[in-house]
Structure formats: structure tokens, C-alpha cells
Amino acid sequence: MRVTIKLFATFRDGRFKVEERELPTGSKVLNILEPLNIKPEEVAICLVNGRDVNAQHLLNDGDTIALFPPVGGG
What CDD domains does this protein map onto (predicted)? Predict the structure, then answer.
């Protein structure tokens, strides 16, 4: 199956902004995080097709995954 991954803020550092990937059927969000060296606890917001999910969410062909780290400011 093919999914689109969008990284935001510091997750883009040394990685990419948007990328399409081919994944085996039955893949979860966790299967995207591992090769990117992103720990599930580092993800503040994970959206699949605009809906909030966790790292165990089962992905489908054509899904768009958006990953956001915690954002600080002052």
C-alpha cells in the first residue's frame, strides 16, 4: 500500500517535508516512526487523514499521516 507522510517543525530536521512510501499491508503508524528514528513518545500530534490517532493505528492504502512534535514558545 502507498501512504503519504508529512513531517512538521523539528521532525523535518535532516529528514523531509512530504514523502510517499510503500508499506506492507497491515502496517501501523509505528512502522513509519521506527525507520525515521522518531519515538512514539516524541509525537505530540499524529493525524491520519485529519483524525487524531496513536502509534498503533492500522494504516490503509492512500492514507496521509501528519506528525507533529511538541511545540514550545513564549
Answer: Ubl_MoaD_like
Cell of 32: 513509519
Class of domain 2-68: alpha beta
Look up residue 48 and give its three cell numbers. Answer: 491520519
* CA atoms of 63 and 46, how far apart (whole Å): 12
**3-class state of residue 51 by DSSP:** strand
**Grid coordinates representing 41?**
513518545
Closest CA to 13 of 41, 48, 42: 42
Task: For residue 31, give the DSSP letter.
Answer: H
Beta bridge partners of 18: 6
Q: How confident is the model at residue 71 (pLDDT cuts 50, 70, 90)?
A: confident
